[in-house]
Design a protein that fits this description.
The chain is an alpha+beta fold. It has a single domain, classed as Roll (Thiol Ester Dehydrase, Chain A), CATH 3.10.129. Helices cover about 25% and strands about 40% of the residues. It is built from three helices and eight strands. The protein has helices spanning about 5-15, 20, 55-75, and strands spanning about 25-30, 35-40, 45, 50, 80-90, 100-105, 110-120, 125-135. The strands form two sheets. It has a six-stranded antiparallel sheet. A two-stranded antiparallel ribbon has the order 3-4. A hairpin with a 3-residue loop joins strand 1 (about 25-30) and strand 2.
Length: about 140
Amino acid sequence: MQVVMTEAELGAFLAREFPQVAEDFVVERLTAEGVVVRLRVAERHLRPGGTVSGPNIFALADVAVYLALLARIGPVALAVTTNAGIDFLRKPEAGRDLIGEARLLKLGRVLAVGEVLVRSDGRAEPVARANLTYSIPPAR
């Protein structure tokens, strides 16, 4: 799949279109199949028990697939999640950022399917695995 947006362009798009979350996420790198995104874990992302909350882990997965899709189709703000599933595999460490490695499995005209493995920074074992489907709006 051809890349049409760079890491910097994806970061700028996120800051412009979603400023409410842009400071939390950093595009680390584009890959041949998708993108690697970092969630900068802060106190607001934690839940009792000293771990990152499930909604924040899901947000990382959703943003990572969204950016993997945009890297291939360009800045289409109205591409939306139509289906999602997530498996929480183990407790992430509260003092470490989370890294989401997303890859697109299928990119069609109206739907894209992707998956994400989420890991605590520096750890090999995944803390979550997610699969998401996005709807791509028709070209205007």
